[in-house]
Amino acid sequence: MAVPYKAIYLFLEGNDDITFFHSIVKPLFERLYDSVISWPYRQRSRRHIQKFIKAIDAMGADYVYVGDIDSFPCVTRKKESLMSAQSRLRSERIYVVKREIEGWYIAGASGRFLSAIGAPAEIGSACENRTKEQFNDLIPRRFQSRIDFMQEVLKDYDVKLAADNNPSFRYFLEKNDLFEII
Amino acid sequence: MNGKVRIDSSEGEDEIEHIFDGYPMQKKTLLLESPIAQLYLSPIISSLSEIGIFDFDPKLPKKTAPITGVTELASDGANLALVLNRISTDGESKRAFLNLMRYMLPFVHRMDVSKVADKSMYFTLRETYARNFELPASLLSDGTVNITALIVALYFEKNKLVVIEEPERNVHPALMSKTVEMMKEAAQKKQIIATTHNPELIRHVDLEDILLVCRDESGRSVVIRPAQSEDVQTFLENDFQISDLFVDNLLEV
């Protein structure tokens, strides 16, 4: 019997998410799926997102919808907010990043990298409440560009360390059967 | 013209006469390069030298560039290889350049500059798909060349004001968001002005950053800020995108 073709769509919010997923998460998904397609949703209308989910459901593909927790007090509230805007979204396909994607970046930064930028080694372990502004404060002056710095973080990234340091990232990996293959 | 300001003295002589006070001027003189201008207009000339105006022609950087040229990026990007050679000589600049290239085009592995008979040079890229195979600029896509020139103009030139004509030219729509992201980041250190007619680029720009140039009833060009229009705000609150309004000529309502 032929093995069915498996595809997964990754709904991602902004460019920092896209860069992170392309570099770290997509290669993991590619070991489980024939096709992994990322789709940025931030500048899309509600109607457009709705149509996209409908099409994915119709083709029988999987999807994950990833968003920052922002100012919501908990994951449940964030999910409720997303689902009230997008009635087709299924709760179990939503993954909430705590607090922002920068937390997932710094969670996997190697000790060697943190030492090179003069950051304390324990900074990765307290990353779930780290904000964008706190992350920006870590960027040494020699980096003229935040984009450059974020690319540099991903060059020496430890996925296992990231899973240990950031519970929301670990949850994402576990729920998508990625934790066992890292 | 070629990034310089030219005033044709064949017309409007009366207007410029008081500035140059009878100084003999030939037709088509480049006023700002005349000795008299250096004397009286040096603050203006100094300010103008801090402006970079770029209208890249991707066909030109694909050719070799003479080694003896200036190492500031030319307005059409023709000397891109020379500028990349300057960037390559500094390890930190080259590292940052490659990271920015990979942000836009993740498959870029490395960049090199090669000399041709010690008289000219061209740049090459290697891709992750074939790391041992060097792609000369002449074989690169127009979009790749345009992105390369854009990164140089935004991050590696010293201009305090950068004007870019259609930065998204030849670039895939899926890269518009990152193009805007880079312009926003570079704008933290210098003023960036970009012109465009591309709705996909406009989709990713903040409404507050858009200046719309349109005609008034008498045909004159006027600049308006769509962010100040209550009607535009109402459209956006009702699930319209900025790009929808641009395409339908509704940003000027």
Summarize the structure in words.
The complex is a heterodimer of chains A (182) and B (253). Chain A is of the alpha/beta class and 182 residues long. Chain A folds into 2 domains: 108 residues, Rossmann fold (3-Layer(aba) Sandwich), CATH 3.40.50; 53 residues, no CATH class. In chain A, α8 packs across α9. The mean pLDDT of chain A is 92. Among the domains of chain B are: 49 residues, no CATH class; 48 residues, no CATH class. In chain B, the strands form 3 sheets. In chain B, strands 2, 3, 4 and 5 form a 4-stranded antiparallel sheet that branches. In chain B, α5 crosses α6 and α6 runs parallel beside α7. The chains are: A alpha/beta (182), B alpha/beta (253). Chains A and B meet through α1 and α7 of A and α5 and α7 of B.
Q: In angstroms, what is the radius of gyration of chain A?
A: 17 Å
- Mean model confidence by pLDDT of chain B: 89
- What profile does the largest beta sheet of chain B have? 4 strands, antiparallel
Terminal-residue CA separation of chain B? 35 Å
User: In CATH's first tier, which class of the largest domain in chain A applies?
Assistant: Alpha Beta
Any idea what the shape of chain B is?
A: flat
Summed up, the helix count of chain B is 10
Helix coverage percent of chain B: 25-40%
Class per helix and strand makeup of chain B = alpha/beta
What's a quick, concise take on this entry?
The complex is a heterodimer of chains A (182) and B (253). With 182 residues, chain A is an alpha/beta fold.
